[in-house]
Input
Amino acid sequence: MAEFADRSAIVTGGARGIGAAVVAELVKAGFGVVIADLRDEHGTTLAGTFAPRARFHHLDVTDEGAWQRVIEETEREFGPLAALVNNAEILDFGTVETESPDMFRHVLDVNLFGAWLGIRLTAPRLRAAGGGTIVNVASTAGLMGYAGISGYVASKWALRGLTKAAALELGSSGIRVCSVHPGPIHTAMTAGIDESIAATQPLPRFGEPQEVAAMVRFLITEATFSTGSEFVIDGGATTGQAGALEAS
Ligand code: NAD
Output
């Protein structure tokens, strides 16, 4: 698609999983894409498969200076920024009582502060380019609670709130900000999770990274009247209680 051939996109956590699928979709849509991740080996290999339309840059999303360098490099390599996908995350298992304070803070640092930094630092570039799109990859854990991952749940609810505040602030600059909320998806992150948790969903299976990536691409290239909105990709998991209610 020539429409986006002179515009660039940054995908954080793009070296594997859902992020890697988003990279593939955005390259297909015509963008020059920067994979921004801690995983140098995965990221470099993935970029190689999409060369010359993708490049890898090492980024820790909690590092403001590194963000600035990556944004500059992205625009130098592929032209004005059109899209940011805040997808990087960490998941830590532990209840409110067992998770360590340091890990709770670290989860919020990566999943929330990292996305906030990305929005804050890319907004001026998107505005200068005449507008663009930010997609925050949240979770069904940003729509409901899950026991045993309290830091992650808190970070994803906060990311959903950040999406709305940023959408309100940036709409007049032509910048749309939306969140996507996947249910369980086949990635390394869910490799150890029992698939029976999906059994009561209307679509009783795990999703695939490409199914999330297609939604992210749609939000960036097609959803021109959507901002501040949640887009749920969960096989119906958050639809309601399965099983018909019967009178006793
Ligand atoms: P993943 O763990 O496979 O990939 C996450 C990527 O983020 C990794 O490549 C990792 O290196 C990178 N990352 C971690 N910390 C970073 C940091 N400080 N700076 C830069 N990069 C960093 O995860 P995934 O399953 O592909 O998930 C991608 C997104 O989708 C996440 O935001 C996750 O919360 C969300 N999500 C996933 C699922 C699922 O079932 N897999 C469900 C709901 C939401």
User: Anything to note?
Assistant: The chain has one domain: 2-233. The chain has six helices and seven strands.
